[in-house]
Design a protein that fits this description.
The chain has twelve helices and four strands. The chain has about 260 residues and is mainly alpha-helical. Helix 2 packs antiparallel against helix 3 and helix 3 packs antiparallel against helix 9.
């Protein structure tokens, strides 16, 4: 989500795509028992949906909000159709280790989180494409005049979003050992909350992975804390909504003050 928001866009299809990736990889694992193949299928599913989102946003010029809002419903409908609205159980001890195992007393998903965060940071901070992402978000037309291929960069961030969701779906499926067609509902909003709390401007061009990691930790601590206190899930959703509004409001106010100076 950070990459997409840095370009001034947003990806509302992430939650639905998580469910679809879980379903396609779960069905593959049940049919073949081949763990690498099931991971490849999940990655291919995420990449394909991300590519479609990126191509249409880049070349048809549909706003990312509208495009991904539409794909959110389309992808969810496809998931429900494939599963006939039924849960798919997955039983494979080796695969479950990805989501439930421990290495040196630390859960495997923590290692996955750290590796992906570091890789994303290096990509964004130390590659030409990373600089192009910031340039497109700051001013797309100026970036174009400077020689940046704005369309290609737009496609790349949506593809990266799809691949990231696919990776998340593998951990999600391995942890719960079940692919639910309703999985991932509102997850895109939590991703947005983590991104904007971490300092990434919703207008694009400013932010980074380290801040998003901190934002993700904050959102998770708040959500888990409310659960531990016995607060209803509806109130947890309310809090996330308030956090998004507050974070974006602060970003707008800060930008306005900086512009006035």
């Amino acid at each position: 989500m950070t990459f997409v928001v840095l370009t001034g866009g947003i990806d509302l299809s992430q939650g639905s795509l998580l469910a679809l990736c879980c379903v396609t990889s779960g069905l593959t694992l049940n049919a073949t028992g081949n763990i690498p193949l099931c991971i490849i299928v999940a990655l291919a599913t995420g990449l394909l949906v991300g590519l479609i989102n990126g191509l249409i946003v880049a070349y048809v010029k549909i706003p990312a909000f509208i495009m991904t809002l539409g794909s959110m419903y389309i992808v969810r409908a496809i998931t429900l159709w494939i599963t006939n609205s039924e849960q798919i159980s997955v039983k494979n001890a080796s695969f479950s280790f990805i989501g439930q195992g421990f290495i040196a007393g630390i859960p495997v998903p923590v290692y996955v989180f750290i590796i992906i965060a570091v890789a994303a940071y290096v990509f964004l901070a130390h590659t030409a494409t990373g600089r192009y992402i910031f340039a497109v978000g700051s001013n797309a037309e100026t970036a174009r005049l400077s020689g940046v291929n704005v369309e290609r960069t737009t496609i790349q961030v949506f593809v990266l979003s799809g691949i990231a969701i696919a990776l998340a779906s593998i951990v999600y499926l391995a942890r719960l050992t079940a692919a639910q067609p309703t999985a991932g509902q509102s997850y895109e909003m939590e991703a947005v909350a983590a991104t904007v709390i971490g300092g990434t401007s919703i207008a694009g061009g400013e932010g980074g992975i380290f801040g998003t990691v901190i934002g993700a930790v904050i959102v998770t601590v708040i959500r888990n804390g409310l659960v531990q206190l016995g607060v209803g899930s509806y109130f947890t959703t309310l809090v996330v909504g308030v956090i998004i509004i507050a974070a974006v409001s602060l970003d707008v106010i800060r930008t306005r003050i900086a512009a006035n100076k």
